[in-house]
Each structure stands twice: as structure tokens, then as C-alpha cells.
């Protein structure tokens, strides 16, 4: 049985305490944290314990990972995080050519050395901008080839015009976790950014799930970038994923 976690960013518009109670009632036992939650780690740890909730992975900004690795490691360990993922680059920070992305990939790998030395897994969480064509190769290829593990966001891979199955096959040994996301049919769910509850959109899970199994990937993080009803998303998506096994 894989680890099935809920990315708490989905519920950023609801109080954390209410969200964790809702998730516990829905049947979750794990969540994934993100930057803003780590501002008050004591409260976060207390709420996780009160709701019997593990946090096996978390998103930490590159500025923190690179600028204060000791604090990153302390925060991660305090919260029980075993996998540290860097999640994003603002548009004005993104390289615009292969040379720039190669340099960034090396920088990203270097920033992860203290994290790995502390016994934690370390990787990059993609969106779609890392799938731009740099002449037969993408920024995400360069990141993986630099030795950085991936938390492969399957929804963003699809939105980037790529095949989730092909990417899982290509980098199976580098994928530490996947974000399980679904995409609404064209023109639907516009108030939710075009995303859908897992199993209620257009992603071909019948093709994707066997490839995840073959690759030995057992850490799923369920996510919807902008649900207008997080309880609906949480319950329907968990039912879908549990139905795969």
C-alpha cells in the first residue's frame, strides 16, 4: 500500500486545524507541508500530533535550503519530514536558455548536499515551465541529470504537453514521489483553475498507475491547486486512489 498524502497547499484558504480534522475524518494519515506552514513549527507539530497525522515530505523554498540548510534540516526533522522538495522558481528567476538551466541544475544539486548529508531525501517539484524545449532537452531533464531527485507532478507534466507515462519510464530511478492531480475537461472548472478531483478529470490513470507500480513508486501526494471545496476534493480523490489497489 503506497503512502497517500494530502498537499496542504490545497487548503491554504481554510484554517489548518480545521483542515487536519477534516482530513483525519476523511481517512488520511499523511500530509505534505509547504513553506508558509513552517513559520510556526511548534504549532504545526502539535496539530499534526493531535490529529495522528504524519508529514513525510515538505516543500521548502530554495532560498531557505540554500541560505540556511541547518534551519531547513531542523524544521524538517522537527516535523517528521523525510523528503525535502524545492517547489518553484518565480518567473523573473527562471533561466531562459540551456546554459542558464544547466547552471541552475548544478546549483540546485549543490544546495541539496547538506540535506542529503543529514540523512534526508532531496529533490525538485516541477510545474510546466521546466518542460520547455531547449533543443531536444528540457530543464527538467537537466535537473534530473544533475543528480537531483524528482517529485514528479503528473498534472503539470500533462499540462506541459508531455506524457506522464513517458516521464515516469524515463526517470523511474530518480522519482522519489509523485503529485497525483487531475485536469478538468477543456472549458470546465474554470473557477478552479481547470483542475479536477482525482479520477473525475481527463488524466488516464488506467495507463499511469501500472507504470507507477512498475517503477516502484509508493509515495503519492494528492493535490488540486485551487479547489473551491477542499473536503469534496479530499474525499473524492482519496476514494479514487484507494480504489486502485
UniProtKB/TrEMBL annotation:
Keywords: Isomerase
InterPro entries in alphabetical order: IolE/XylAMocC-like, Xyl_isomerase-like_sf, Xyl_isomerase-like_TIM-brl
Pfam families recorded: AP_endonuc_2
A GO molecular-function annotation: isomerase activity
Domain Xylose isomerase-like TIM barrel: 23-228
Protein name according to UniProt: Sugar phosphate isomerase/epimerase
Annotated source species: Wenxinia saemankumensis
